[in-house]
Write a structure and sequence with these properties.
The protein is built from seven helices and seven strands; from the N terminus they run βαβαβαβαβαβααβ. With 257 residues, the protein is α/β, with parallel strands linked by helices. The chain has one domain (3-245): NAD(P)-binding Rossmann-like Domain (Rossmann fold). The longest helix is centred in the middle third of the chain and has 26 residues, at 105-130. It starts with 8 loop residues before the first strand and ends in a 14-residue tail after the last strand.
Length: 257
């Protein structure tokens, strides 16, 4: 799709499953060297082997996004393996549910540390190498929840995803002088392992709320990230792409065709 991705090295956090795995697949198909990063080496290795089996260039790495030293060690290992880092897809995140009445300080801190601080640590770890690249690309996986919409039980998650976008704008200004762009993809409802076990009627209701009448795939997010990572997107920074099948557009279900 984008020839400029060929041979570039991309770090994808949270890449062992879900959206992160879809992003990793798309970059591998485009000819990138994919650093599959998760907290669990076996999970990373399984995904890396799957990408290798499909003809891609991929290796497994361990990185805990809430621990800067862990992420720095991961980044160094990636550079030792592939020779550099050109692209960071800061995708790792969690989305536990808790009402405001029952939410504890620990619940709040866990989500904010993983989703918001995790983006910071991922960037800090990769930044020295991104600065050495021909051009650097940072793509955050945010969400429509928080920046655009709300959902009961996800106030801490929504806050963390909105925080990512505020962070992104200032980060884009700071890093522009180093020829590094910083952008974000905002997924809607995506068919991942997180939806397994939900009732069929709930999934049907979810699908019916989307104008395109289907849930998104992890690869839908991956292709958006791929574009933002390309040389062709080099004049785009501090921007967001909503990838939701039109989910946020109707003011009510009555507006649906």
């Amino acid at each position: 799709m984008w020839n400029s991705i060929m041979g570039k090295t991309v770090v994808v956090t949270g890449a062992s499953k879900g959206i992160g795995k879809g992003i990793a697949r798309v970059f591998a198909k485009a000819g990138a060297n994919v650093a599959v990063v998760s907290r669990n080496f076996e999970a990373s290795e399984n995904t890396a082997k799957e990408l290798q089996g499909a003809g891609g260039s991929a290796e497994a790495f361990v990185g805990e996004v809430t621990n800067l030293e862990s992420m720095q060690a991961m980044a160094k290992s990636v550079v030792d393996t592939f020779g550099g880092i050109d692209i960071l897809c800061a995708n790792a995140g969690i989305f536990p549910s808790s009402t405001i009445e029952l939410m504890t300080a620990e619940d709040w801190d866990l989500v904010m540390n993983t989703n918001a601080k995790g983006s910071l640590f991922s960037i800090q770890a990769c930044l020295p190498y991104l600065k050495e690249a021909e051009y650097g690309r940072i793509i955050l996986t945010s969400s429509i929840t928080g920046p655009v919409t709300g959902y009961q039980g996800w106030s801490h998650y929504a806050a963390s995803k909105a925080a990512q976008l505020g962070f992104m704008k200032s980060a884009a200004l700071e890093l522009a002088g180093s020829n590094i762009t910083v952008n974000a993809v905002l997924p809607g409802n995506i068919q991942t392992e997180g939806l397994e076990g939900l009732r069929d009627d709930y999934l049907k209701k979810m699908t019916n709320s989307i104008p395109l009448k289907r849930l998104g795939t992890p690869e839908d997010i991956g292709y958006s990230a791929l574009f933002l990572a390309s040389k062709e997107a080099g004049f785009i920074t501090a921007q967001t792409i909503i990838v939701d099948g039109g989910q946020i557009v109707p003011e009510s279900l009555d507006a649906m065709v």
